[in-house]
Amino acid sequence: xxxxxxxxxxxxxxxxxxxxxxxxxxxxxxxxxxxxxxxxxxxxxxxxxxxxxxxxxxxxxxxxxxxxxxxxxxxxxxxxxxxxxxxxxxxxxxxxxxxxxxxxxxxxxxxxxxxxxxxxxxxxxxxxxxxxxxxxxxxxxxxxxxxxxxxxxxxxxxxxxxxxxxxxxxxxxxxxxxxxxxxxxxxxx
Amino acid sequence: xxxxxxxxxxxxxxxxxxxxxxxxxxxxxxxxxxxxxxxxxxxxxxxxxxxxxxxxxxxxxxxxxxxxxxxxxxxxxxxxxxxxxxxxxxxxxxxxxxxxxxxxxxxxxxxxxxxxxxxxxxxxxxxxxxxxxxxxxxxxxxxxxxxxx
Lengths: 189, 149
What we know:
The structure holds two protein chains of two kinds. Chain A is an alpha/beta fold. In chain A, 35% of the residues lie in helices and 22% in strands. Chain A is built from five helices and ten strands. In chain B, 54% of the residues lie in helices and 1% in strands. Chain B has helices at residues 21-33, 50-64, 69-80, 95-121, 136-148, and one strand at 2-3.
């Protein structure tokens, strides 16, 4: 009986440690199911600004990226092809994080990106969305509610599935590949 | 809430948020309380990562707006989850984190005392038997001594 008690206590302690270690690796965002934080972002390509408010009524694919991010290269063409395929039915917005003007514009030109692309220069949008790294993508319903978050580079199949969930107004499961996210841990000057 | 910079891709760093000494103290306290999400066991105050800098800027903006410590803490928890706070709240399941170390130390002390008492109660181990003069070696020695005499 005593041994059983000791084993149970040890198992409980171990379970707590596993829980503590695993919760930092979770894909889920507390923002899912909540209103998406508003943002206003000037665009690279035109002398205009995109706001989340202006996109109300349209499902939004909000992607955070950076020109220095290797995984972002893998999904760059997937996002552009998605934008071309869905047209005005789905708004695609790309926000460059911790990036500089020239490399970001070169990246856009290299991958032929044509959707709404701007820069979060002061990092405020990244913090508002609880970002860890890039790439990360939030799927926002027409009413402005975050329906899912995907971390890591998107594949065409993942993108199509998430957009189908967006159009159906269904909250999606957290998904992605955390090992392919490049954290925003670069040290400043 | 979020507003990006006035010009897309502008490389100039955002202007610093100027605070009063009292606000500086509050901002420092909050930054020390928040975990840098992309660092290993570092607070926003001690980390030099870009992410921590962005979070620090947001803390300072909110302090300048007159937000309370609780409001700022809730803002970050709503975005990153409870783990963004280095010291968890003293409520609900989070109490386990505070109480478990004390429970483990207490349990360890009780175990040590119990084991020590058990050892104390045991009879001392029996002394090894004295060497027998009838051993083969002694018999041989005695025989040889007799022969030399």
